[in-house]
Amino acid sequence: MDTIIKQGTRVYLRTPKREEISFIKSLWESEETMKAVGGVRQYTDEEYQSWFTANVDPGNSTDRFLIIFENENDIPIGEIGFLRFSQETKSAELSVTVKAKFRRRGFGRESLMLLCDFFFIDFGGEIMECRTANDNIAGQKMVENFGFEVKDETDTEVIYQLKKTDYLPE
Length: 170
Description:
This protein is α+β, with helices and mostly antiparallel strands. 31% of the residues lie in helices and 32% in strands. The protein has a single domain, classed as Gcn5-related N-acetyltransferase (GNAT) (Aminopeptidase, 3-Layer(aba) Sandwich). It is built from six helices and eight strands; from the N terminus they run ββαααβββαβαββα. The chain is globular, with a radius of gyration of 15 Å. The relative contact order is 0.15.
């Protein structure tokens, strides 16, 4: 299961190994990293193991969870993936978290490009949605600059979408 899903210039995306749950745990339990994306997530070790089984190995047909690795030092710097893929609409919801100390250096953008290539070209997706908290201005700017457009707004979040036809114009 040491398969690189997509390789970029500065990062690559790979399916996590079970022993890398500790990285995911450190990422999700970091106050500095998670404050802009809904806050810290804390689970028991058993809950992390159950999550891994449900979402990674063996996983399911609607979600893809990948770790972002920096090429230069071959270290994990975040996670990216999509959730709740609908066979009917060919849409899914983006999930991306980059460690706070690696932000604003282009890693998130390149990771998003690699994931969109995988989603739209290899996986057969048509629409990628992204939900950002109203106060997550940096996240909103990143997806807007990437080409996502506002689909809806609520009191708590902005919902963006990127269509395959806009990402890969003919």
